[in-house]
């Protein structure tokens, strides 16, 4: 768990991925690795001898094979250009000699093989095929969050230097683990820390919120805690807007409504609606 992994493609979010990963690399004092994955694509069939009506058109097979080879070569070249442009951007941001990796295969599987050395994964909220519709998120984003048991920072298309962050706190054991991770990590130290508990707060829940606040204060955070009622997604979004929050922190697997997050509508809703980066912690 030593490296910040910046996952880039040809999407508009790749520049922000570079910027946020550079920011995280400096704060964590960790090296940075750029990763570009060439997804496997369907290849032309190599044997059509049994196909009805092929006749003597064997030359079509060779043309298809040549086309596949050309596509693969162009995809590799494009990926190398993306990596070089990203390295140049990182150099301007003061990141010296970042590594770059280009791999073939499924994105999730490829990142899984790198998990042991991953301290933080930075990935764009929208992928290369997401289009310009804000609500469209990358097809692999949720799968990556489910599969990797490492912190994942999902970023929008534009970089804004984080000055404050909000913890979606629900009083669960997982929420307390999120607090513990933040206490131990230098990533967000020095930023204003907000905690929001959505729902009718019982005395026990208030005590849990107070305990979490105290832990963070002892770790040096300036904290602001609040409880409110309403829809979880609406309240989180509203609070971020009203308090000019730059980053939202959530537990990847919780034990309350926020838990529905990787298995249902809550996660998809927050990924689609949030205009700030989302830091997912296990």
Automatic annotation (TrEMBL):
InterPro entries: Universal_stress_UspA (IPR006015), UspA (IPR006016)
CDD domains linked: USP-like (cd00293)
Gene3D superfamilies tied to this protein: 3.40.50.12370
Segments crossing the lipid bilayer: none
UspA domain: residues covered: 2-156, 165-281
Stored Pfam families: Usp
Stated family: Belongs to the universal stress protein A family.
The protein's name: Nucleotide-binding universal stress protein, UspA family
Species this protein is from: Ectopseudomonas toyotomiensis
């Amino acid at each position: 768990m030593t490296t910040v992994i910046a996952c880039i493609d040809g999407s508009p979010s790749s520049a922000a991925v570079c910027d946020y990963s550079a920011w995280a690399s400096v704060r964590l004092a960790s090296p940075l690795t750029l990763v570009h994955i060439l997804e496997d694509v369907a290849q032309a069939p190599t044997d059509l001898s049994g196909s009805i009506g092929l006749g003597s058109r064997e030359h079509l097979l060779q043309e298809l094979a040549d086309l596949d080879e050309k596509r693969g070569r162009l995809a590799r070249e494009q990926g190398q250009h993306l990596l070089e442009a990203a390295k140049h951007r990182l150099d301007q941001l003061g990141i010296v000699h970042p590594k770059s990796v280009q791999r073939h295969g499924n994105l999730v599987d490829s990142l899984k093989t790198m998990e042991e050395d991953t301290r933080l994964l930075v990935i764009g909220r929208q992928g290369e095929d997401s289009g310009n519709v804000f609500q469209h998120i990358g097809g692999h984003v949720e799968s990556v969050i489910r599969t990797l048991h490492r912190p994942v920072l999902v970023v929008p298309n534009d970089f804004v230097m984080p000055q404050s962050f909000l913890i979606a706190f629900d009083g669960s054991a997982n929420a307390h683990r999120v607090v513990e991770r933040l206490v131990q990590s230098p990533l967000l130290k020095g930023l204003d820390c907000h905690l929001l508990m959505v729902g009718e707060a019982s005395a026990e829940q208030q005590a849990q919120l107070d305990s979490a606040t105290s832990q963070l204060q002892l770790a040096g955070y300036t904290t602001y805690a609040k409880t409110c009622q309403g829809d979880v997604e609406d309240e989180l979004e509203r609070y971020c807007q009203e308090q000019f929050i730059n980053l939202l922190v959530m537990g990847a697997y919780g034990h309350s409504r926020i838990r529905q997050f990787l298995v249902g509508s809550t996660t998809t809703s927050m990924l689609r609606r949030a205009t700030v980066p989302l830091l997912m912690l296990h």
